[in-house]
Specification:
Length: 131
């Protein structure tokens, strides 16, 4: 069963030449099109694995720099930085603390850097945001 007005044949005029096929192709994804999320934890000296996310870690400041350099070297287009402060409370003062982990670690890499400044970044129950 065909739909009224729907072509019975598919015109191939835009697929005839390789150059035309490149122009009308649907998706091309390159490392430069991606943003790498990175977590940095205050007060640690080595990466801390995130149990619920195999292969993902909360970086120390030193390992964060290494991860950022590796990302830049493979051509990743940008980085987004999530911070885990040493102290958590319901107000979330680390979100706008000039000496907070995100603010201090935010001077890395050679790519655009986005940061997550949620307030509170983590409350005492471990939940992001307000309860």
């Amino acid at each position: 069963m065909s739909l009224p007005g729907f072509p019975g044949t598919r015109p191939r005029r835009l697929r005839r030449l390789p150059a035309l096929r490149r122009l009308v192709s649907d998706v091309r994804l390159r490392p430069a099109d991606l943003v790498l999320p990175l977590c940095v934890q205050e007060g640690v000296d080595r990466p801390v694995p995130i149990a619920s996310m195999p292969g993902v870690v909360q970086h120390s400041r030193a390992s964060l720099v290494t991860a950022a350099v590796e990302a830049v070297d493979v051509g990743v287009g940008g980085l987004i930085l999530f911070g885990v402060p040493a102290e958590k409370d319901a107000r979330g003062p680390a979100a706008d603390d000039p000496d907070g982990i995100v603010q201090q670690a935010g001077h890395i890499g050679q790519r655009p850097l986005q940061t997550d400044q949620s307030a509170p970044p983590r409350n005492p129950t471990g939940s992001p945001g307000h309860n």
